[in-house]
Amino acid sequence: MTGWSSDDIPDLDGRVAVVTGANGGLGEVTARQLARRGARVVLACRSEARGRAAAERIAAEVPGARAEPALLDLADLASVRRFAQSLPYDRIDLLVNNAGVMALPYGTTADGFETQFGVNHLGHFALTGLLLPALLAAPGARVVTVSSMMHALANIDITDLNSERRYRRWIAYARSKTANLLFTHELARRLAAHGADVTAAAVHPGYAATNLQTAGPRAEGRRTAERVVRLVNRVVAQPAEAGALPTLYAATAPGVRPDSFTGPSFALWRGAPAPSWRAPWTLDDRASRLLWTESERLTGVRYEALKG
Fold first, then answer.
1. Is 173 assigned a catalytic role?
2. Which Pfam families does the annotation name (predicted)?
């Protein structure tokens, strides 16, 4: 994968892709590049207006692009179900679990889950399970889940998944990103056991400048902190176009391994996509099984197609 860039994305004509959080940042870049190579892309966004605006931007940059916005609020399992039921496609070739929130003040989703765990993990767990029949119907389909190197700050606590005993925003974020990797680990194992032609892989963008970093300070009205983050992003971070490359690689490059973790090649921060280090606890079979069982219980979404 040395020097891999968006120019190496193969022809995707006839493929259907779903990208969550596609109204900006890494998600919009991912959706635009997939559409540029011919995929029909569903922009799964929490805001209908922002989703339509993103679709219009993509259409302006990519003549003939097939990018269609659809409403998806990962903080509301009813919305996740409505989205999955409303998709008109019997086959989905690519699901990119990209959307996320980071270091927010304590809050809960519509279903009562701690927001970061609920959105970053449980919402995507439910979405993937609901779309699984369509993924299994597409030969060579892929599920790419965006984690973060911040996962290295903390393992999950299976006895306190919703951080009810003590909430620390960065630890909660790290646990949600560890959950992304454990989910990918267990999904890859179950797909292999089922003999399914679907690849589950995980990625991280390194340090890429997006709105994710400013959302927490903005939510709390910490304007100085928000300005500092914006300044650091301008000086240090790589652009979203570079941050999306690991996702695009895992989504489209030949030979991507199940349960692989791809990120930037230089110091886990920037550069072309490359295999990335991950904390040992993200490969823990027992932890991944326990998290899977709890995730099915909490969401009510059971991966029936992978049972038996």
1. yes
2. adh_short
